[in-house]
Design brief:
The chain is built from six helices and three strands, in the order H-H-E-H-E-E-H-H-H. With 195 residues, it is mostly helical.
Amino acid sequence: MSDASGTLTMPDGVAMLERAMSYTLGSLRLVTTEQLSRPTPCAEWDLRALLEHMNDSLLALCEAADVGRVYADPLGVDDDPATGLVQSMRDRACQLLGVWVGADSPARVSIGERSLTSRIVAGTGAVEVAVHGWDVARACGSNRRVPTGLAEDLIELSRILVVDADRPARFAPPLPVSRAADASEKLLNFLGRRV
């Protein structure tokens, strides 16, 4: 993520978000109602809680692109019955991509007292969407790898976004990575997930 002069460059966050969402939609196809109580790699959550969190996150990303602000309390969060949770996620994913790709997103997004570029917000969303997509697949008994090109982009971005202060509150400590690890494993291990 550096150009020829060595200057740090930010990849297209919206393109990464679109690729991450495509991967995660594939993971959502694995979910059945019977699996909603299964544990996930996020120790405190079962699959249902993870999907609810992801729904909230997608709503926040929609707000970021649509109104240039992320509110502290999620707006319009549905209290979905178990059978409708995955469909709600799919609908929200389509809404998210439509807002980010089809509209003129604001240059900056306000989150609490901070103001970030929309590229950073979209890139951060891509990290969350892809990694939680892997979490969903894992909870469903599948080891769907994050696609190599996406994982390579996300690991570089994660190294910028995830700092020591984020651990252990938001992310577990990074895990050792073998020399043979692929990009997906490197990403997940960096974010404290055992592959």
